[in-house]
Design goal:
This protein has helices at 2-8, 10-29, 35-70, 86-137, 143-168, 183-193, 195-201, 218-234, 291-299, 329-332; strands at 179-182, 204-209, 213-216, 240-248, 251-258, 305-311, 315-321. With 334 residues, it is of the alpha+beta class. It folds into two domains: 2-84; 180-332, Histidine kinase-like ATPase, C-terminal domain (Heat Shock Protein 90), CATH 3.30.565.10. Strand 4 (240-248) and strand 5 form a beta hairpin. Helix 2 (10-29) packs antiparallel against helix 3, helix 6 packs across helix 8 (218-234) and helix 8 (218-234) packs antiparallel against helix 9 (291-299). The two termini are 73 Å apart.
């Protein structure tokens, strides 16, 4: 082990010896310098250096012993290979640890993907009894009870739909099919799904679609509209929701305006943050803080820009700006 220790440090041991020899050589050549005095100084230097080497050897042996507890390949056995310097031993151990963590991470990712697939399958399974429940609700005679049941059914349906799209968000770009879509049919379908809730809250719709055709993905655009219209209905009471579209500078803009409770100025910059609900309405336990977060995540690959303006107590305006046709040339081939 001592031999290996000295071999690994032969470069700076050689440097020390060379410096001492140089000092002796200079003192020998220069008659004004006492050669015996410098010989004494060199002797003391070598003695100190030898003590230093012994201390370093003992310290590093103790270090190897402590490292052996962390990883076997770093113990005293690693010193038996005279061709393996300490740096290579450390690099090898780090490589082994990195490979271990990479394999473990890969396994965790596979487990997460498996859990995600199971959750998606579960959501699809739950949708079947929900559809049956909807058919059963149509046969309920008591209108008040029917309205209450439909509202609770709708809440469950929207939460499941939100979770379904949440799980699909990571692979959204692989799921896009860009085509020409009619806004009126998409908007009508989303309003119809909320019809019972709107009746219950006395909410109507004022729809004017001057520009009706946009390029987008039907499923994900429907999800975006669903989240925004649902929020408008949720936070409004006894008022109309205005939905208007127009074409400006070659782009279609869709505006959804409600006259509900609005959003405070300090909350407005954070409404698309994951899990953020409100700093003003902490008692609203129904809010999940996921709807607008997922809306923003879905809008990004669709190249839809969303602007929000709001005044607390006066309502909120969402403006969706759709991209021009050439923004999707790589996806549509048009």
């Amino acid at each position: 082990m001592i031999k290996t220790f000295l071999k690994e440090r032969r470069s700076w041991i050689g440097l020390f010896i060379a410096i001492q020899l140089l000092i002796l050589f200079i003192s020998y050549l220069d008659p004004s310098i006492s050669f015996r005095s410098f010989l004494y100084i060199v002797f003391l230097s070598c003695l100190i250096f030898l003590v230093f080497l012994i201390m370093r050897y003992n310290k590093e042996i103790a270090f190897y012993k402590s490292m052996e507890e962390w990883h076997p390949s770093l113990g005293l056995d690693s010193l038996k290979d005279p061709g393996t310097p300490f740096e290579n031993i450390i690099a090898k151990a780090i490589g082994q640890q990195a490979e271990f963590y990479i394999n473990e991470t890969r396994e965790q990712v596979m487990n997460l993907e498996g859990e995600q697939d199971e959750l998606l399958a579960w959501i699809h399974e739950v949708k079947t009894p929900l559809t049956t429940m909807q058919l059963m609700l149509e046969r309920v005679q008591d209108e008040n009870l029917k309205a209450q049941l439909q509202f609770e059914w709708l809440r469950v349906h929207l939460l499941l739909d939100q979770q379904l799209h949440h799980r699909r968000i990571p692979s959204l770009e692989n799921d896009l099919y860009i085509e020409k879509l009619a806004l009126d049919s998409l908007v009508s379908a989303e309003i119809k799904s909320l019809q019972s809730w709107c009746f219950q809250k006395g909410i109507g719709f004022d729809i004017t679609l001057e520009a009706n055709v946009v390029l987008s993905d039907a499923k994900w655009l429907g999800f975006i509209l669903r989240q925004i219209i649902t929020n408008a209905v949720k936070y409004s009471e006894g008022s109309d929701i205005i939905i208007h579209s127009s074409k400006q500078h070659g782009t279609v803009k869709l505006t959804i305006q409600d006259f509900g409770r609005g959003i405070s100025t300090k909350d407005l910059p954070r409404i698309f943050d994951k899990g953020f609900t409100s700093t003003m309405n902490h008692k609203d336990h129904n809010a999940t803080g996921m709807g607008l977060y997922l809306t923003k995540k879905a809008a990004t690959p669709l190249k839809i820009h969303i602007d929000v303006t709001s005044e607390q107590g006066m309502g909120t305006v969402f403006e969706l700006t759709f991209p021009k046709k050439n923004a999707f040339l790589d996806l549509t081939g048009m």
